[in-house]
Amino acid sequence: RTTDPSSSLHRAVKGHEAKVDWVMDKLLNDKRILQVVAISGMGGVGKTTLAQSVYNHRISLARFDKRIWCTISQNSSLEDIFQALLGEKQTEGSIHELGLRLYNKLMGHRFLIVLDDMWDLTAWNRMKSYLPEDENSSGVIITTRISSIADSIRTTLDPCSLDLLDENASWELLKETIFGNGDCPPELEDIGKKIAISCRGLPLSLVTIAGVLSKSGRSVILWERVAENVRRFLSDDEHGLKVLNLSYQSLPMRLKPCFLYLRNFKEDETIEAKYLIRSWICEGLVRPVADKTVEEVAEEYLRDLIDRNLILILKRSISEEIKECSVHDFIRELCIRVSQKEKFVSTLR
């Protein structure tokens, strides 16, 4: 589907201003070749919002005479993507014919294309040959939840990886989403900062909780009630869980049980990587693979879930071995919700 997000640019770019500047700098440099910038990070961290900010930036509006935004679903075929980029539905023709039509549409223009939420490389590897390389300083922005895709997409540019916000940026985003340019009442500030910390730096969580607080008026008692029940309010947010559920649905079948097992850990718990791997093996969640030990396969599972930004690395050894990791509370809530729905059972720790 093709969308122009100009009317929906959200304050959630707060905390990622430097990243916006970085992407703008890469797109607007003096090189005339096609610039491809990949933005990666977990669901809800602000990838789409950052891309929107660049797409709608006044400099982009002046520089690129043709701008196209395309949101990619997990089921999007290359034909669907071409039709979206062409602005045509039910267009007949082979993939090659559609690609040539896109090429002719873009040729001679300085264009900016956003491909939002890329799930695999197949479509990109086939479509990129239909993007004109006419030294016109055009650009492509690709957002993805999968870090290895961002690494593979890069041409001369490193990918832009979005991390979780720190405590100060989290509070600034929460405060600005609720009060706009106004000030937070002094009596709410300490409670508000506590709530922001509870969201653990995920903009999606912060915006969700900001919506709850906005409806709570400016009552200290109501804000304290929210502070004590952040997890419950997040678990009631169907939109947020739907956004994150896309990451679960995209998992290969072999990884789904290992992901759902993460529900057994406590909120904010530091998880030893070796313990997690042993637990998966003991539960029978790791499939044997020829010429590999079960431990090696389990380590690959862990790296794959990290690559998909579903598990966060907390500590590495000097040799870069993963020592400790964790799961964001919102991701853990997704594990619990999906486990209940799919009746996933594992031995409780």
Automatic annotation (TrEMBL):
<keyword id="KW-0677">Repeat</keyword>
<keyword id="KW-0547">Nucleotide-binding</keyword>
<dbReference type="InterPro" id="IPR002182">
    <property type="entry name" value="NB-ARC"/>
</dbReference>
<keyword id="KW-0611">Plant defense</keyword>
<dbReference type="GO" id="GO:0043531">
    <property type="term" value="F:ADP binding"/>
</dbReference>
<keyword id="KW-0067">ATP-binding</keyword>
<keyword id="KW-0433">Leucine-rich repeat</keyword>
<protein>
    <submittedName>
        <fullName>Uncharacterized protein</fullName>
    </submittedName>
</protein>
<dbReference type="InterPro" id="IPR036388">
    <property type="entry name" value="WH-like_DNA-bd_sf"/>
</dbReference>
<dbReference type="GO" id="GO:0005737">
    <property type="term" value="C:cytoplasm"/>
</dbReference>
<dbReference type="Pfam" id="PF23559">
    <property type="entry name" value="WHD_DRP"/>
</dbReference>
<dbReference type="GO" id="GO:0098542">
    <property type="term" value="P:defense response to other organism"/>
</dbReference>
<comment type="similarity">
    <text>Belongs to the disease resistance NB-LRR family.</text>
</comment>
<dbReference type="InterPro" id="IPR027417">
    <property type="entry name" value="P-loop_NTPase"/>
</dbReference>
<feature type="domain" description="NB-ARC">
    <location>
        <begin position="17"/>
        <end position="181"/>
    </location>
</feature>
<dbReference type="InterPro" id="IPR058922">
    <property type="entry name" value="WHD_DRP"/>
</dbReference>
<dbReference type="Pfam" id="PF00931">
    <property type="entry name" value="NB-ARC"/>
</dbReference>
<keyword id="KW-0963">Cytoplasm</keyword>
<dbReference type="InterPro" id="IPR044974">
    <property type="entry name" value="Disease_R_plants"/>
</dbReference>
<dbReference type="GO" id="GO:0005524">
    <property type="term" value="F:ATP binding"/>
</dbReference>
<feature type="domain" description="Disease resistance protein winged helix">
    <location>
        <begin position="265"/>
        <end position="334"/>
    </location>
</feature>
<dbReference type="InterPro" id="IPR042197">
    <property type="entry name" value="Apaf_helical"/>
</dbReference>
<dbReference type="GO" id="GO:0051607">
    <property type="term" value="P:defense response to virus"/>
</dbReference>
